[in-house]
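Thread title: Can someone regenerate the structure for this chain?

I was given the following input by a collaborator and told the matching structure tokens would be attached. They weren't. Posting the sequence so someone can regenerate them.
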Amino acid sequence: MDGQHIVEVVRKNLRTMMDDGADNVALGGAKDWGEYQRLVGRLEGLAIAEREILDAAQKLMASEES
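Best answer:
Regenerated them for you:
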């Protein structure tokens, strides 16, 4: 399994978790304000993780091309 495939699998899993979490929040899945904040914080963390992985993969591909 090459690095690009690993990045795609991880990105897809993160995106699925983000979509499921966003649906949960949008449909009123939080029982109270504290749970809402936790869910939104989780979504923010997942988005940051996705961005970091994509940035790292892009840098790696650029360095391999040079």
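The first helix runs from residue 3 to 26.
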